[in-house]
């Protein structure tokens, strides 16, 4: 489902909605939460990766020879924002095992709510690749904008952003700084509370994934 916001797609599918509801539940265990994040990433990644370039190649089937599409060009790069993005990176790698992987370590300053970078490891030739940036939550948008700033400075073509849950404030922040970026979400929530958490949201994704809440 494409919303009225340009460059934003919210995946509207019964399975996605069902799993999002389970993800929100405070009683969901860390083990189940991780599995749900993986499953939702897989279901929504098909939309986020819809525009990967392909070329027709000749393949011999047991019946005949035919032309069929395969991904073309350099393998895409998947960049996860640490630490919560790791579970989404692993899910994407099951779809594109030959993808290259990058990591950006960011945490949100508890007072300013601004991102602080503490780690960066990206493919040396990332500017030559399609880039999918992944992070479960798009809240204030600060981390996503910071990551997109880095990718832009490195000469990357416009990245695609895949998050599980977002809100209008985060979407607006990304599109104000990077209007060309395509965002794909599994759910678009109503907004942020006074602590900059998404409402109704699901709490701190990293804590719930790794059992540190």
Keywords:
213 residues; alpha/beta; globular
Shape estimate: globular
Low-confidence stretches: none
CATH fold-level assignment = Rossmann fold
Mean pLDDT: 92
Estimate what percentage of residues fall within beta strands.
25-35%
- Major β-sheet profile: 8 strands, mixed
> How many DSSP-defined strands?
12
Explain what this protein looks like in three dimensions.
The structure is a single chain. This protein has helices at about 15-25, 30-50, 85-95, 140-155, 170-175, 205-210, and strands spanning about 10, 55-60, 65-70, 75-80, 100-110, 115-120, 130-135, 135-140, 160-165, 180-190, 190, 200. The two termini are about 35 Å apart. The chain is of the alpha/beta class. The longest helix has 19 residues, at about 30-50.
Fold topology:
Blueprint: E1 8-10, H1 14-24, H2 30-48, E2 54-60, E3 65-71, E4 77-82, H3 86-95, E5 100-108, E6 115-121, E7 131-134, E8 137-138, H4 142-153, E9 160-166, H5 168-177, E10 182-188, E11 191-192, E12 198-199, H6 205-210
Parallel strand pairs: 1-10, 4-5, 4-7, 7-9, 8-9, 9-10
Antiparallel strand pairs: 2-3, 5-6, 11-12
């Amino acid at each position: 489902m494409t919303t009225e916001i340009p460059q934003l797609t919210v995946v509207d599918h019964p399975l996605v909605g069902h799993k999002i509801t389970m993800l929100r539940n405070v009683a969901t265990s860390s083990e189940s939460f991780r599995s749900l994040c993986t499953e939702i990433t897989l279901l929504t990644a098909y939309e986020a990766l819809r525009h990967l370039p392909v070329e027709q190649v000749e393949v011999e089937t047991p019946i005949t020879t035919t032309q069929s599409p395969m991904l073309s060009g350099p393998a895409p790069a998947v960049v996860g924002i640490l630490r919560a993005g790791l579970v989404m990176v692993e899910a994407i790698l099951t779809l594109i095992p030959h993808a290259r992987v990058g990591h950006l370590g960011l945490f949100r300053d508890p007072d300013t709510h601004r991102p602080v970078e503490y780690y960066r490891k990206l493919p040396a030739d990332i500017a030559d690749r399609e880039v999918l940036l992944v992070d479960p939550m798009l809240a204030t948008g600060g981390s996503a904008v910071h990551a997109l700033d880095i990718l832009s400075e490195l000469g990357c073509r416009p990245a695609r952003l895949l998050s599980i849950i977002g809100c209008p404030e985060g979407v607006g922040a990304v599109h104000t700084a990077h209007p060309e970026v395509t965002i794909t979400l599994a759910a678009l929530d109503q907004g942020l509370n006074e602590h900059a958490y998404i409402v109704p949201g699901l709490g701190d994704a990293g804590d719930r994934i790794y059992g540190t809440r």
